[in-house]
Write a structure and sequence with these properties.
This protein has 338 residues and is of the alpha+beta class. Helices cover 34% and strands 29% of the residues. It has a 16-stranded mixed sheet that branches. A three-stranded mixed sheet has the order 1-16-17, with no helix packed on it.
Length: 338
């Protein structure tokens, strides 16, 4: 039986749960490193301890070296990686639909009992599930969802995307989620899934928790996925994938590659010359040390030519010839500027 994930504004995990008391509690089963708790109504965090009860409105926060396992009243388990912030909640207590809480940022693995109507919020949507094992990451405007058990539907204002066990999807703010992909058949996604398991496991030392490495794995995979989507004619999904990749990584070389692909997608697939020019000029401003600079400079000349801005095209052509006197686009530039 499938339930719904809505992604318009906040990501939410919908599982069907019987009504429980507004004073629902959970308990901290295991903690590692820095794990802090802020009580509902208080404005400060204190170091948490094993066995401590967590009640509605309390906020759990893990530090750079922290992990935690929270057991809910029905024996469902939430496992939190480092640098994660989560608020336990039950805002609809006494009704059929129950609110487990809000994942503000970070990574959580939710192993949930077959309950009726619960959900977990994030800043990008909602997940509906009947008894499941799902791992959610949220950072910036990007969310990833790896489903090990159960079946869900990811719903936005534009489309509904089913997600079944063994598959993952990703979302970006105010855009529809990407088409699902099986993480059991992709080396990159399998590596990401393995990294997520390490990040949310208390037993695995926190030295293996490298969130940046996970983001690089996901960014590299999603760049390749964007190629596939563009070649398949799914240009809007390809754009979403590239925006997600850009949001994931801060590495200059990777950012340059992503921007170059965004420029190419806009000018060659979406007929958005201005959008392409913005991407190329950002590379020219910020990523001069990357191998993508030369192609971005040529791309900018081509955009100015398409926009009939000849003076700019000439200016950037001269820039290219000064910078790359033996560049591989010299012949193309001469043909373009005739």
């Amino acid at each position: 039986m499938k339930y719904i994930i809505q992604l318009p504004i906040m990501l939410v995990l919908l599982i069907w749960v019987p009504a429980v008391s507004a004073s629902q509690t959970a308990s901290l089963e295991q903690i590692y490193g820095t794990v802090e708790l802020r009580r509902n109504g208080q404005d400060f965090f204190k170091q948490a301890r094993v066995g401590q009860n967590v009640v509605n409105g309390d906020i759990l926060r893990t530090g750079a070296d922290g992990k935690a396992i929270l057991r809910l009243i029905d024996n469902s388990i939430l496992s939190f990686a480092s640098e994660t912030e989560f608020m336990l909640g039950n805002e609809l207590a006494g009704t059929e639909v129950n609110f487990i809480g809000t994942l503000f940022r970070g990574i959580t693995r939710a192993i949930l009992e077959k309950r009726k109507g619960s959900y977990i919020k994030t800043p990008t949507g909602a997940i509906g599930i009947r008894g499941t094992d799902i791992t959610i990451t949220h950072n910036g405007e990007t969310g990833f969802y790896f489903l090990d058990e159960g079946a869900v539907e990811v719903v936005t204002s534009e489309t509904t995307i089913p997600l079944e066990a063994g598959n993952m999807t990703a979302s970006f703010a105010k855009r529809r989620a990407l088409p699902p992909s099986p993480f059991t058949k992709s080396a990159g996604l399998a590596e990401a899934r393995s990294a997520l398991s390490a990040l949310t496991s208390i037993e695995i030392p926190s030295s293996l928790k490298d969130n940046a490495l996970l983001n690089e794995i996901l960014a590299r995979w999603i760049i390749n996925y964007a190629h596939y989507l563009a070649d398949s004619g799914r240009h809007e999904d390809a754009e979403t994938a590239l925006l997600i990749a850009e949001d994931l990584t801060e590495r200059q070389a990777v950012q340059g590659e992503i921007l170059l692909q965004i420029g190419g997608l806009y000018v060659y697939r979406l007929n958005d010359v201005h959008g392409a020019l913005r991407a190329y000029r950002k590379i020219l401003r910020e990523y001069q040390g990357t191998p993508y600079f030369e192609k971005a400079l040529f791309g900018a000349v081509r955009c100015f030519h398409l926009l009939k801005q000849r003076e700019k095209a000439v200016e950037y052509t001269k820039w290219y010839k000064r910078k790359f006197p033996r560049g591989k686009y010299l012949h193309d530039l001469d043909a373009l500027m005739k």
